[in-house]
Write a sequence for this structure.
């Protein structure tokens, strides 16, 4: 039986909030601050309502309900996956012991830090995407943007619930601070680099949902393994919502590539900018940028923080329980690629230190699946050009490659060589201006902008020309 969600409460939840008056009051005190933040930092386009899905139960069946909803009235709430009474710690020093229902004193600071970092990314992405509604290529895309936004808002609720329920006064202060930091702010920026970058156009949005949301999937996957059971259950449910965000990215890029191939064939040239398309080399530059910025989100390839989190049972590996080893890793070593004496080389390091690298490797393999899809679109169009992921050392600012200049194909460069080629690898101001110039809103039912192909199907069985959004 799946646990249903109580929507008669001011804060919808499946954690019996009414049974904990103190916590309920704390969250009800935070709610107006959240709604203020949404009004000020959330979507700028005025809409009457949007065809959104809302969670109704956390179980396998029937958790989503679709309806037209006014955005500020979306029912943000606290939803945890069901508790498994038998669940045991799967890794680290506490392996085999029952999972924790409370925060152990000795890990309080680390757990709080992980939850704050995770929580910080969620509202950041809403802030980054707040103006995109003004230039949506179709009502279908506009609806998907808002679906992503409201769910990122709910993911903030998920982390704020943990902070307020389990971390006392400090947790409440951190919950407040999550609404005070802002993406790109000079004085109080968001914590991780990628969340202070701009998402100024829809190509960036699709890249962000493909590459950066996918980091979210992998980080949440490791927190789902946590010995701190409420964190694990929260992340498990967040991952279900997250899948749609990556779908938006994958199919968004599919459709841009498809439209570009159509324009290339129609006009028999790769230079499709004059015809209102996005050239493949510009798409490649956007991939290069978003992939490299997202790799930085994994932290350094060798990390004592990551080793400590693992040994303590706070953060596991991707699909920890399916791994065929001792889940302690104290005697294991791993091979990583690093700069050694100015050359790219492999190094053996203790596996415990290489956990960020391990997660990043899983992530890169997953990213590759999209590239394969996009290349299939090119192949089907009879074109020879191919897209690719750049080398993991390309354009890095965090970790063992930061400070080195490495080309997308993995050659070590001098600063001068890099400077001479950088404009062919990363989006230039001209590329961005051109992409920006294509971003003219199309709000007419069933119509779509010229630079992107329509989707193969609509949302929840509705056709593409459904009235997904009513503008104000
Ligand atoms: N930017 O040992 P190191 C998502 C700092 S996305 C700035 O290498 P560690 C979403 C680090 O804090 C997923 N600073 O790293 C997506 C440390 O500082 P201190 C978000 C950085 O700790 C789309 C120092 O460098 N969730 O959900 O092993 C839309 C050395 O650190 C960065 C998480 O990330 C950076 N990129 O790993 C919406 C999960 N990287 O302590 C949502 C929670 C490192 O020396 N976070 N530093 O002052 C973590 O697991 C880890 O904190 C990190 C870093 C993976 C981020």
């Amino acid at each position: 039986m799946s646990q249903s969600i109580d929507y008669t409460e001011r804060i919808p939840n499946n954690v019996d909030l009414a049974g904990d008056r103190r916590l309920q009051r704390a969250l009800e005190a935070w709610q107006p601050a959240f709604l203020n933040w949404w009004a000020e930092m959330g979507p700028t386009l005025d809409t009457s309502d949007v065809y959104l899905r809302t969670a109704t139960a956390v179980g396998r069946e029937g958790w989503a309900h679709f309806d037209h909803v006014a955005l500020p009235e979306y029912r943000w709430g606290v939803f945890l996956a069901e508790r498994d009474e038998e669940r045991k710690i799967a890794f680290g020093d506490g392996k085999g012991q029952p999972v924790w229902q409370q925060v152990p004193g000795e890990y309080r600071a680390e757990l709080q830090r992980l939850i704050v970092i995770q929580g910080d990314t969620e509202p950041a992405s809403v802030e980054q995407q707040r103006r995109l509604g003004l230039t949506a290529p179709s009502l279908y895309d506009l609806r998907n943007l808002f679906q992503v936004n409201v769910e990122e808002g709910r993911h903030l609720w998920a982390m704020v619930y943990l902070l307020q329920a389990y971390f006392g006064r400090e947790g409440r202060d951190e919950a407040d601070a999550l609404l005070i930091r802002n993406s790109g702010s000079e004085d109080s920026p968001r914590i991780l680099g990628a969340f202070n970058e701009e998402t100024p156009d829809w190509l960036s949005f699709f890249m962000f949902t493909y590459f950066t949301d996918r980091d979210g999937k992998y980080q949440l996957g490791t927190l789902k393994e946590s010995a701190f059971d409420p964190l694990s259950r929260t992340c498990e449910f967040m991952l279900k919502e997250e899948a749609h965000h990556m779908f938006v990215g994958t199919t968004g890029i599919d459709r841009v590539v498809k439209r570009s191939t159509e324009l290339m064939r129609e006009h028999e040239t790769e230079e499709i900018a004059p015809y209102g398309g996005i050239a493949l080399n510009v798409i490649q530059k956007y991939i290069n940028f978003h992939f490299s910025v997202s790799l930085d989100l994994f932290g350094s390839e060798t990390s004592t923080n990551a080793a400590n989190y693992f040994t303590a049972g706070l953060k596991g590996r991707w699909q920890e329980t399916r791994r065929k080893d001792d889940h302690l890793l104290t005697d294991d070593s791993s091979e990583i690629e690093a700069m050694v004496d100015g050359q790219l080389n492999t190094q053996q390091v203790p596996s415990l230190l290489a956990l960020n690298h391990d997660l990043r490797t899983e992530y890169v393999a997953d990213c590759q699946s999209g590239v394969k899809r996009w290349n299939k679109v090119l192949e089907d169009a009879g074109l020879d050009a191919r897209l690719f992921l750049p080398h993991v050392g390309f354009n890095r600012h965090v970790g063992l490659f930061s400070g080195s200049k490495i080309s997308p194909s993995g050659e070590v460069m001098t600063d001068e060589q890099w400077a001479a080629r950088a404009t062919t690898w990363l989006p230039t101001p001209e590329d961005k201006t051109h992409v920006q110039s294509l971003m003219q809103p199309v709000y007419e039912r069933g119509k779509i902008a010229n630079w992107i192909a329509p989707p193969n199907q609509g949302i929840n069985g509705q056709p593409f020309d459904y009235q997904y959004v009513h503008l104000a």
